[in-house]
Automatic annotation (TrEMBL), chain A:
Keyword Transport belongs to the record: yes
Pfam families tied to this protein: BPD_transp_1 (PF00528)
Keyword DNA repair: no
SUPFAM superfamilies according to UniProt: MetI-like
Superkingdom of this protein's organism: Bacteria
Species whose genome carries this gene: Roseiarcus fermentans
Organism taxonomic ancestry: Bacteria, Pseudomonadati, Pseudomonadota, Alphaproteobacteria, Hyphomicrobiales
Quaternary structure (record): The complex is composed of two ATP-binding proteins (CysA), two transmembrane proteins (CysT and CysW) and a solute-binding protein (CysP).
PANTHER family: SULFATE TRANSPORT SYSTEM PERMEASE PROTEIN, SULFATE TRANSPORT SYSTEM PERMEASE PROTEIN CYST
Transmembrane segments: 18-42, 63-89, 109-130, 142-161, 247-268
Family: Belongs to the binding-protein-dependent transport system permease family. CysTW subfamily.
Official protein name in the record: Sulfate transport system permease protein CysT
UniProtKB/TrEMBL annotation, chain B:
PROSITE patterns xrefs: ABC_TM1
Species name: Roseiarcus fermentans
GO cellular component: plasma membrane
Protein known as: Sulfate transport system permease protein
SUPFAM superfamilies in UniProt: MetI-like
């Protein structure tokens, strides 16, 4: 079929209410989301590209970006390994308590970050239940960069589990059985048949966990210790600059975070459409 | 024939051994216990550290009560607004074909990708004393930042996608045939929405409302930036928890935090139940 002219803005429909609901949607979106974000971009544009880069290259900012990104990547990788294990176990095996554990996986979505922050901090403090045990082997978690890792593993876990679970549930057992009858060991089947099928979903989950980890604030600041150059995350540095009335600095940092979030959104969309394609393919 | 029957069943090979299963289940239970259960237990134990009377007096403190009241007020404003918006967006996106649909969906989901701190900062840059509209607001004696309107706006921003995101895919999946049938039978727009569309998506809608509510009551980063932390006036429960914790009023901090933890558990329980009901409802159709 040859497309003639431009596709119409809207395909005609018998159903009522398009104009009203679309207007309401666009107005709400513009007032609540787009106008405030535009204010940030406008303010950032007065600094210019050079001004933003100058802030980004401040040693304290660079250190915060390093620890934020480093820990977000590390946490996403921990979530990748354990999230896959959790998703596989909860989908494939039947055991008592499975449903309860499965419902619990969403806890980091539902528990306010401040509550998670003070709970994890109390847990891993040198006199806390886990902190005391770790202190005996000379490991300090709370008030060090490792505390950031713990908090980010917590908030990122459901992203990996919930992205991978549906794909595991739709895997066709016949492929695994075929692999087994052809003489592959179970481990080799998992590695060569199952993992490739799960790769797009795993990547999506890791990207979602990473994106969340980079922006996370509430659960981190209680456990991190927040020492500049060592355990100070970028979102906290924005707050610090704001409290010092350094609006330009805060804006530049926020613009950087927003640009990163935008790139991550594109990457996640790409990974998600790959997931969908692989689903259709199966 | 008998050879085939004697061959080992492939299904037995295509599974992990019993011991491997045991190890994986143990790792899963251990990891979830360590990262999910332990923090919840800490909240419960620390909140009850000073006994029942200590718990009650922590919640009865005037600043704590003001924080609880403010949190309820903010949720009571934000959740209905975002529910109405979410239903509008779901209707427009799910039932009609138009250009730019993907862009619109992406823009609605945008708040999920923005750091909570940035979500608060954008309102400071717009309405704060140094902000774009700061002079105009000051001239008209309107205060948004460091006041309740700022908290409401920041909470609206962070909970914006929840309802639309839960309802739209389900509405899309159900197509337009039932609505068109109702239309030919003479139903008006609102009637067909209320009697045909809404019953079909009610479980997803409830899930979205629950999640939006939990997030609006628990939001910390965005609200922290716009609130100004004025005790008894602009502190929500999470902000009051932070203040108490930093003052080493640990038991009082965890007493307030236990309210939010209980809210999270109730939300999770209801969500699990609603998803189960939604699954059953879809299965019956």
């Amino acid at each position: 079929m040859i497309a003639v002219g431009r596709r119409p803005l809207k395909t005609p429909s018998a159903l009522p209410g398009f104009a009203a609901t679309m207007t309401a949607t666009l107005v709400a979106l513009a007032v609540v989301v787009l106008a405030p974000l535009a204010a940030l971009l406008l303010k950032a544009s007065t600094l210019g590209f050079g001004g933003v880069v100058e802030v980004a290259l401040q040693p304290r900012v660079l250190a915060s970006l390093r620890v934020t990104f480093g820990m977000a990547i590390a946490a996403a990788l921990v979530d990748l390994v354990f999230g896959l294990c959790v998703a596989w176990t909860l989908t494939r095996y039947a055991f008592p308590g499975r449903r309860l554990l499965d419902a619990m996986v969403d806890l980091p979505f539902a528990l306010p970050t401040a509550v998670a922050g003070i709970a994890l901090s109390t847990l891993y403090a040198p006199n806390g239940w886990l902190g005391a045990v770790l202190a005996k082997v000379g490991v300090k978690v709370a008030y060090t960069p490792w505390g950031i890792l713990v908090a980010l593993v917590f908030v990122g876990l459901p992203f990996v589990v919930r992205t991978v679970e549906p794909i595991i549930a739709t895997l066709e057992r016949e492929q695994e059985e075929a692999s087994a009858t052809l003489g592959a060991t179970r481990l080799s089947t998992l590695w060569r048949v199952v993992i490739p099928e799960l790769t797009p979903a795993l990547l999506t989950g890791v990207a979602l966990a990473f994106a969340r980890g980079v922006g996370e604030y509430g659960s981190v600041i209680f456990i991190a210790g927040n020492v500049p150059y060592l355990s100070e995350i970028t979102p906290l540095l924005i707050v610090v600059k704001l409290e010092e009335y350094d609006y330009a600095g805060a804006t530049a940092l926020a613009a950087i975070m927003l640009a990163i979030a935008f790139v991550m959104l594109l990457a996640i969309n790409a990974a998600q459409s790959w997931t969908r394609r692989s689903l259709v393919h199966v | 024939m008998s050879d085939l029957a004697a061959a080992p069943r492939p299904a037995a090979v295509a599974d992990e051994s019993v011991s491997a299963r045991g190890v994986l289940i143990a790792v899963t239970a251990g990891f979830l216990g360590l990262f999910l259960l332990a923090p919840l237990l800490v909240v419960a134990v620390e909140a009850s550290n000073k006994g029942w009377s200590g718990y009650v007096s922590a919640l009865a403190d005037p600043d704590a009560r003001a924080a609880i009241a403010l949190t309820l007020v903010v949720a009571a404003i934000v959740v209905p607004l975002n529910t109405a918006f979410g239903l509008c967006a779901a209707w427009a996106i799910a039932k009609f074909q138009f250009r730019g649909k993907n862009l619109l969906t992406t823009l609605i989901d945008l708040p999920f990708s923005v750091s909570p701190v940035v979500s608060g900062l954008v309102f400071v840059l717009l309405f704060g004393a140094q902000g774009l509209m700061g002079n105009w607001l000051a001239a008209h004696h309107v205060q948004i930042i460091f006041a309740v309107p700022g908290i409401v706006l920041a909470t609206l921003f962070v909970t914006f996608p929840f309802v639309a995101r839960e309802v739209t895919p389900l509405m899309q999946q159900q197509g337009t045939a039932e609505e068109e049938a109702a239309l030919t039978l003479g139903a008006s727009g609102l009637t067909l929405f209320r009697t045909v569309t809404l019953p079909n998506v009610k479980w997803a809608l409830l899930t979205g409302v629950l999640l939006a509510n939990a997030r609006s009551m628990g939001e910390f980063g965005a609200v922290s930036v716009v609130s100004g932390h004025i005790r008894g006036l602009t502190n929500t429960i999470p902000l009051q928890v932070e203040i108490l914790y930093n003052e080493y009023s640990i038991a009082a901090a965890f007493a307030l935090a236990s309210l939010l933890a209980a809210l999270a558990l109730v939300t999770l329980g209801l969500k699990t139940f609603l998803e189960y009901r939604g699954g059953v409802a879809r299965h019956d159709r």
